[in-house]
Amino acid sequence: MAASTGHQPPPFFRRGLPPSAKLTIYVALSLALLVGDLQMSYLTTLRQGVAILTYPLQIAAATPAEFARNVSNYFNGLISLQRENERLRADRLQSAKQLLRSSQLEHENTELRGLLDMRARVKVQAIAAEVLFTARDPFSRKVILDKGGNQGMEPGLAVVDAAGVLGQVTRVFPLHAEVTLLSDKEQAIPVLIERSGLRAVMFGTGSGLTELRYLAANADVRVGDRILTSGLDGVFVPGLPVATVIRASRDAAESFGRILCLPIGGVERSGDVLVLGRAGGLPQRPAEEALDPRRTAVGRISQRHEPERAQSAPHAASPPGASASAPVAMPPARAAVPRAAASASVAASSAPRAARSSAASAASHSAAQSVSQGSAQAVDSAPKGGN
Amino acid sequence: MMPTHRSSRILLPVRANFITISLIVALVLHFIPMGRFYAVPDFVALVLAFWCVREPLRVGMGTGFVLGVIVDVAHGAVMGQHALAYVLLAYASTVMSRRLLWFSPGAQALHMVPLILMAQLVMLVVRMLVGGRFPGWDYFFSTFTTAALWMPVHFILLIPQMRPINRDDNRPI
Known about the structure:
The complex is a heterodimer of chains A (about 375) and B (about 170). Chain A has eight helices and twelve strands. By secondary structure, chain A is of the alpha+beta class. Chain A has a six-stranded antiparallel beta barrel. In chain A, strands 6-7-8-11-10-9 form a six-stranded antiparallel barrel. Chain A is globular, with a radius of gyration of 26 Å. Chain B has about 170 residues and is an all-alpha fold. Chain B contains seven helices and no strands. The longest helix of chain B is centred in the C-terminal third of the chain and has 26 residues, at about 105-130.
């Protein structure tokens, strides 16, 4: 009506859409973002773009904090520096001894492997990086590294410090990268127990500790056992120290023991880290016929959706019920072997169901045992082409 | 109680640049790495709510959404988590702005507590649905530190709009 009479309302009264309409629009947009990020991972480009804008601000915010830390270090004085220098010298001597020996051993190993006609061990490439700061997301455990895609970082690489594994690179931006720590609730890593050689999957608990899941209550795990990476996922280099068992409780009421571990690396501390990856391609997967036929029933969905599953494999490797953004993300080229670990963890995760169904006929304890044997076989049959 | 009209002292119009700069400063403050110390106030929510109350026609849900996406990316959170919380916060502050301006800054800070608590609860619910871990009850400390900062922020952000007081008894206002 205002338009027909030629009168416009004064700008004072023009308020655009009513607030409720705006609210609906923006809430819908946010929910779309949420779903898009979690379910479809379409938003990588948007994230990369915004990250380029925010990174300078983050650095601007982080620099004074670091400066303050450095100043306090500076005034800590000569004595602590000297002490540290002494310690480092001793360390260096120690590691030089080991290094000399290891180069000789490596040489010998190569020759012996050549004699035995075995595959050569995978070569490892490393990028040195520094932890810039802890990501301020109270719901997850992540840190930011100062190296990004421009320096050759890729999602999926393993992050270690001098003592052991810290976590895995999960998001790579041009100038920085996000690392999900071992203690994050959604981080999983295939491991083996050094003493017994038992294979398992380790998950974060979200509170600084990690947990070995899906091990039978009578599994051979003791307090103090060291846990190493098994390398079955094709991402982590095998044999890196990961954690020490600090509690192994066995409840007869449950099929699985509850085994808590403390990471060996300085997972909750910051400092210099090394980002490790496998140089060169992965070994070929063994032929399908060579696999245990039971695995098709338990661990694999079907043979027909091969290319599709190659992409979804990183998600399958995450704990059951975790979101699609689970940080066990691997680049597609590496997704071939992780499927073995994935199917192993799926086999393990289907164990409770099997245990429940057979509880009527057998004691739950023996059922769990047999199921865990089944999943152990699934794991066993996987790495034959590995090394 | 009669309103004293101290709050409706005539202010200069806000410059758009000042709003932008204050929001950027809030972002930088919010990006300061504090590790696992949860009592750090959410500066972005605070400044956003302040401008939504003071300038509801210029700063609103759109600003909240953009800021939310930026914070999501910087924190490595799920995209849309902060965006959703800030949009709801901006809506609530915009709707309440007429009423809030009648109160003293201290009372306004009290009004802010439920709004910021709501924003934090929204984020908590979103992350728990997605499978995050519960960060513990100290997660909610930040609500109260944020609300406590309302008064200093109220003072600082109004300084550029303050007209120098030269009283003229003959002027009606």
